[in-house]
Structures are given as C-alpha cells and as structure tokens.
Fold this sequence. Notes:
The protein is mostly helical. It has a domain of about 110 residues: Serine Threonine Protein Phosphatase 5, Tetratricopeptide repeat, CATH 1.25.40. α4 packs antiparallel against α5, α4 runs parallel beside α6 and α6 runs antiparallel to α7. The relative contact order is 0.08.
Amino acid sequence: MMRILPVRAGVLLLMLWLLQACAPNVYYPPRDVRLPPPVVESGSQSPVVQPAPYPSSGVIAPQPLPAAPRTQAPAVVALLDTAEQQANSGDLESAAASLERAIRIEPRNPVLWYHLATVRLAQGDAQAAEQLAAKSTSLAPGNNLQQARNWQLIARARHAQNDSRGAAEAEQRARELSAR
C-alpha cells in the first residue's frame, strides 16, 4: 500500500507538469484602470480625435478622459431579445409589451423606440410608428445611422398613410443622413 501512494503522487505530478506545459504561455499586462475598455456602438460615426503634440517636443499632450461609454442594462438586452423572438413568431402585441417594459428601464435609448416603431407599423398603426420613430430620432443626435433608419421607417409609415409627398421627403432625409 505504501508503494502505491508514491507512484500515484508521481503520476499526479507528471500530469500536472504536462498540463502546465500544454497551457499557452501568454502574459497580459495590467490594463490602465483609468481608461474604460474600448467599446464601439454599432452605427456610431464619432470621429477619433488625435491629441496634438506639445509644441517643440514630440510628446503627446494629455487629454481629458472621455466619458465612459453607455452600456445597456442586462434586463434591457433580455427584453430586446424577447421582443425580437415574439415579433418573429408573429406575437406583435407581446413584442410591443416587452419593448415598452424595456423603455421604462431605459427611456432615452433610441434603439428601443425604433424597434417599438417597427412593431407598431407591423401592427398597422402607421401614425404611432411615425411618432415613435421621430422620438427615436430626437434621442439620437449625432448618430447618423440611427437617424437614417428612423427616417426610412417614417417614409414607410407615411406611405402607409397615403402621404406620398411626406414619404418622399423622409426618404430624401434618410439618404442625406446615410451619405454623411
């Protein structure tokens, strides 16, 4: 019995050594805790500003830290996923209810208003869809992609209301925003 224990210990040590040898030898330097991790919001077209060097030296001037990027609450992400599944299965009333719950959590989120507008348009309420898309546009200053999507939706809503001239104007606005 005493002989078996050292053999098992030796085998265990050999296995641990082999596992360590197989593991990648990667070193991740510590991150500067002052800077948030890089996050790119889909549709954002914010330019990256290169700080100017100090005069007469090649050293880059320190810049104030940007505000931390806004992230969606996990509950909002879950509700958005649920609404998408409900809408895709044809349950538009439940999808609208899920989106309205998400909006109660994040009322300034233009994406949520846009998705609610698409559901309302699919339900045949073109006037509500137009108003919701306009609300989304007002919450997305500087986000040309989101604004263009909103204007495309407004154009579809106006077509549904037999407003050809208004639809053409909305389509033009969407094209202008997409070109920027």
